[in-house]
What does this fold into?
Amino acid sequence: MVAMSNDRTQLTRRAFVAGAAGMAGALVLPSSPTWSMPGERSPAPAAYPFTLGVASGDPLTTAIVLWTRLAPEPTELDGGMARGVYDVDWELATDPEMRTVVRRGRAAARRRDAYSVHIDVRGLHPGRTFWYRFRSGPHLSPIGRTRTAPRLRDRRAELSLALVSCQRYASGYYTAYDDLAAAEPDLVAHVGDYIYESAGTGVRDESLPTAVDLPTYRARYGLYKSDPSLQAAHAIAPWTFTWDDHEVENNYAGDTPQLSSPTPLGRPWERRRAAAYKAYWEHMPFRRPAPTSADFRIHRRVRWGRVADIFVLDTRQYRDDQPCGPADIGPRCDDSLADDTRMLGGRQVGWLNRGLASSDARWAVLAQQVVFSQLAFVPGDPGVYNLDQWDGYVAARGRVQQAFTEHHPDNNVVLTGDIHAAGVSDLLADYDDPTSANLGAEFIGTSVSSGGSSALQSAIPTVLNNNPHIRWADTTRRGWVHHRVDRDSWKADFRFVTDATVPDSPVETGASWEIPAFGQLERTDQ
Ligand code: FE
Ligand code: CA
It folds into this structure.
């Protein structure tokens, strides 16, 4: 049994106080007498079912995806729901008190999808704030706040963007998410390690069985998403999101599981990957229908006027196995330097090329998992590199840099997670030539809670010396990054939690960086 706190009153209050009231943006529906009445044709959940909160995702100019899951006992089989098909009513309003409802509807929550619902609300006005909630039987969900993207031609749009990744439940408290929710960003980008597939040790109990099939992956999402701070972050803004490795298994690569951990219980690898992908879909506000196999396209584009074009990448599903042996960090070999090495796969690279070629946004953004810029622990070849990162796939990185150079040579931003450390780097056309073209900047976003290494901090001066394009790094602190973006500049505040292993630790800005359009990265807080 896992101890959980679930302060619904607090979450609802947070959601209610969020932001200024939206402007009336669409047809106003008369209040429906059925909304406040229990449904008649469907069973009602036996206990309060909205224990995992609400979420929204992937804004288009006129559409937004709403999500919830019925789960009275979120770490139990089927979330504690008795078998059946349950009506879930939803409504979307232009005010936080839900007085001016502009859309409503009814969805069915089914056992095959873990009683989750994904609603693609269309026909909305661009660049507006909305509020939404769900009802099942007599139970009302908390209220969430969300936004549509600005018009595609909008040059004056601004984007307040939160970057998060790596939230091992056992390792710490999600204080970073409370701070994020208070900042009321327009959009949250999560770049992976939303769950960890096996139990870690630390300050919170996550001693569930290692996730290998649908029930065990679902239980992990049930535990992680029961956290009220994570729920507050989902309830404050739409998210765009992609997985890294731990949503399936540490360091898996495409069709290859990690060498040191054969798939438990003798299951074929494809079945484990399919279960992991399905459980991720069930717990996130996806626009696409559910995956039906171990193959599921997740790379997609989020456009924010003529300010930012965000390409959400998948660097796990299509990559070749990590080269040069089982160690993450080691010397390069022929495989890491081969011309045909794959990180994104041909289809995703083609899609990225076409997207960059068609983009008229000031900033082209890659929201992705692993460190992109060269990071030599020992420079040269073979040198010493982290071969799970783009450094292990040199020609694949070259194809992305070529796409930048040909189609969008200035003002590129790479947003990165995975390594539980914060950092800032110039993007260069050739990392072995410091005078080569500057393509933009990479922001590496530390971790929400997953443990970093204070020991590694002592290696930072050597790393910075070996890699002059890496401008700053900090391995010691957990948090998130608040990006504020318009056509003139990209500003990033690294928000650091003083100590994520204790609840409600203070959060402060530990470093601020800015890159002016067509300019160079500079630190602005010193
Ligand atoms: Fe991680
Ligand atoms: Ca990872």
Q: What stands out?
A: Residues 1-27 have pLDDT under 50 and may be disordered. The CA atoms of residues 157 and 305 lie 6 Å apart. The radius of gyration is 22 Å. Residues 192-193, 244-246, 418 surround calcium ion (ligand 2) (CB under 6 Å).
